[in-house]
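Name: DUF2116 family Zn-ribbon domain-containing protein
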Amino acid sequence: MKNCLECGEKLVGREDKKFCSDGCRNAYNNKINKDSTNFMRNVNNKLRKNYRILSALNVDGKGKTTRAKLLSKGFDFEFFTNILETKTGNRYYFVYDQGYRVLEDEYYMLVKKEI
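Structure predicted for DUF2116 family Zn-ribbon domain-containing protein:
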């Protein structure tokens, strides 16, 4: 007899069953997938916030905005997932598929990477 991986209750039903209920399955997976430290949680929260800001300002997949507008919405320029440097020397900073490039006079070009 097998037991539920979350609560230890005996399992009835299919042979490959691992959990006694959806609640136990969700609780087990939430424990496994949670951020292990406050530092990780804080970094992931900042990345999520930056992503939401870029997505809201870049609905068409390509646009332009100012540094002041990004800062007023709480954008943190220190948090991004990767940098893409083009052959022409342009540097794009990405938060997942949403990116930006520094232009002149405190302006930023917003782009979306096709996935």
